[in-house]
Amino acid sequence: MSHSSGISASKELINTFGDANHNTVRFVKVSIVNEELVATKVVNATGTFEQDLDTIPTLLEKDHPCYILAKTDEKSIELSGNQWVFMFYVPDIAKVKEKMTYASTRANLKKELGSSHFVDEVYSSAQNDFTKRGYQAHRTHQESSAPLTLEEQQKADEREGGLFVGGGGMYVHGVSFPVEDRAMSAINDFLASKANYVQLAINIADEKIVHSTSGNVDADDLSSKVPGDEPRFHFFRYTHNHEGEQLDSIIFVFSCPDGSAGTKSAPVRQRMLYSSSKANVESLVTKHSVKVDLKLEINNGTELTKSIIDNELHPQKAEEKKAFSKPTRPGAGARKLINPDIFNNGAFPITANMQFGHVPSIM
């Protein structure tokens, strides 16, 4: 599933882009400032489109992503103004949170400005990929590329939908934050059965998986451990009996309040980072050849009770339906022996040559 950050373009940016279609503007640099898309730099044309491309690296920062809206010299047939190229720069050394935010906002920006204005798109972590030479290489690759396979098209759609874009224009389906020592120690205690419950969080500022709480809890007390205002990851070892067998079931829970059922909705970016980190956090246990028996995603603690866990782990078997027995139709069924006396009343003598079911004709 793709995610949108919900960050919108400012009125000033929309006006700047609209005016740029009818003046000498060549590039508009767009950044996210205070949860809003704004124009942080406007550059006028000094030569042709390709000649002006060599000035783009001077607009880029080595550790912060941005978008560059580049106006070509070609006029749009369908729309008023020129055709544009949408450029997305995301340096490798930028913070993961920032990469995520820009990646999940890209589609919003194009949509609000009008996707039909953009005839091409370039995204990269290397500044030189946006120069004249870099863009020519991009166009050559575009023109020589074979038609996309279904899988390639799906990946392209995922990138367009706002999934995380990493270095070199690569994309991934999740985020792998480093894990602090205390959190790893709590996981080790969990794996060694020294504790049956571990709760982990994400330190957004430091971009780390951190320890929140751990210990031994009863299944009935799990609901009280779920925060109503922030996402969390939970590991729980559920020791119980089922059909006479002692079981230790490992349960992984992702709790993410969305504002319903008395919860306070977590910020969109926070929810995105947690959601994208699920696989990485789960692997803290599964990489030790430990199987997760049940995975749950919940909004609040009321969805994490002993009865719910029991029903999810051991769903009731559907009652076996008995086959409908049709009544025997008249004249059917097992054959019945005929009483020979009805023939042996003097009218139909039984002979050794008479075959079963054969009635001799009356002479």
Walk me through what this model shows.
This protein is an alpha/beta fold. The chain folds into two domains: 162 residues, Severin, CATH 3.40.20.10; 133 residues, Severin, CATH 3.40.20. Helices cover 26% and strands 24% of the residues. The protein has eight helices and eleven strands. The strands form two sheets. A six-stranded mixed β-sheet has the order 1-3-2-4-5-6. Strands 8-7-9-10-11 form a five-stranded mixed β-sheet, with helices on both faces. A hairpin with a 3-residue loop joins strand 2 and strand 3. It is elongated and about 80 Å long. It starts with 7 loop residues before the first strand and ends in a 50-residue tail after the last helix. The C terminus is likely disordered.
Give the structure's gist in a few sentences.
This protein is α/β, with parallel strands linked by helices. Helix content is 26%, strand content 24%. It has two domains: 162 residues, Severin (3-Layer(aba) Sandwich); 133 residues, Severin (3-Layer(aba) Sandwich), CATH 3.40.20.
Topology:
Blueprint: E1 8-9, H1 11-20, E2 25-32, E3 36-44, H2 49-52, E4 66-75, E5 82-89, H3 96-113, E6 118-124, H4 132-144, H5 150-160, H6 181-191, E7 197-203, E8 208-215, E9 232-242, E10 245-255, H7 268-286, E11 294-298, H8 306-313
Parallel strand pairs: 1-3, 5-6, 10-11
Antiparallel strand pairs: 2-3, 2-4, 4-5, 7-8, 7-9, 9-10
